[in-house]
Amino acid sequence: MTDTTTLTGATLPDGRVRNVVLRHGGISHIRPVGIPDPGQAAIDLTGYLLLPAPAEAHLHLDRALTWEPVGSDPDGRDGAVRSWRAQPTRYGTADLRRRAHRTLQALSANGVTAVRTHVDIGPGGASLRAVEVLRELREDLHRVLDLQIVAVPSPDLSDRAALEAFAAGAGLLGGRPHRASDPRAETRRLLRLADRAEADLDLHLDHRPDSRVLAVADLARLLRKSGFGRQVAASHCATLGLLRPPALAKVVEAIAASGMAVIGLPSTPHGDIRALPPCGGPAPLHALLDAGVRLAAGGDHLRDALHPMGRADALATASLLMTTGQMAAEQAYAAVSTSARAIMGLPAAGTEPGAVADLLAVRASSLAEAVLSAPADRIVLRRGRVVSRTSARRPAAVPGRYATGYGRRRVPAGAR
What we know:
By secondary structure, the protein is α/β, with parallel strands linked by helices. Helix content is 32%, strand content 23%. It has helices spanning 67-70, 76-85, 93-109, 126-140, 159-168, 183-197, 215-226, 245-258, 284-290, 314-324, 329-335, 338-343, 367-373; strands spanning 4-11, 17-23, 26-32, 41-44, 49-52, 56-59, 114-121, 146-153, 172-175, 200-205, 232-236, 261-264, 295-297, 359-362, 378-382, 385-393, 407-411.
């Protein structure tokens, strides 16, 4: 591909059909549909909607695709956790690399060009080796996607051992304060560790709806008192959905004042912000948006003991936001694309001049159609270069017979 490429006949999110000119990995300019300049490479996007590429803001690659060998048990979520904890020793680094690579390939084929993965860090060297394997994948796949690694130390792990994850390849600090005997003290420790590591913080908070616990409010207060100057994200925040409108408004105001971001995980069973609070009032997601809180959404678990489902598709996550969070298509897609990228500290992508040319072209006439039907026909560009093409073979009508199904075919980048 030359330094300049024209995407011809693309439908922009606002409905206009235009030619989009890419140069040096970014959007150079947009012009009316016409014949590309001589000598320029061209990609025909007639019939395709051109969108900023999605970003997966919260995933657990170390557990992905372990549902079949690990399974779960009839004891619900706690049983699923026990099933996973009893099994990790069965998996070597080669297995982790295979599963993580397969997951990242699926995400890329569906349009994702940036992923943030959380990795549990416990005593011993196995978890650090997992970070090293993901760091190697990050290097191998850097032309296809950005991979951010969040080290999630267990509460009983020493400060020194937790910080070793950064030497192994982690770039952010995570944590699950609810697993500590003193969650507030653990939150303060994680803030201190992130400050020492000069790393942004992304915590699992209020992962179960429980009106007696509101860790996200505690974190907001700690951030304002401590003057912590780095980026902070709170994932899950399920308890927000249980709050009555006055209490919700007060907590949301504190979150907004703290500057933290919130990452919802709508595919997580019983572990995410519910759509409607009791006694009416605004839905929590809308309350956060109205207050100016930066909001993203992610897939969380993918076919593992905690969640056996998942398609590694940001359009599916956006669809869940529309159905469970009462969000418009534009709000839902922003949560898995432009807002997610901003929270992850990535440069803006999209169809505006000057933006990075991380793009998803999907065969659809509107954003609502793309989100709700998740068409198989997709072209993914990373920094202006095609990294994946997926097309569907549709059955033709045969007189007197019924078509028996259809398949989808992925064409390697550069094959056309």
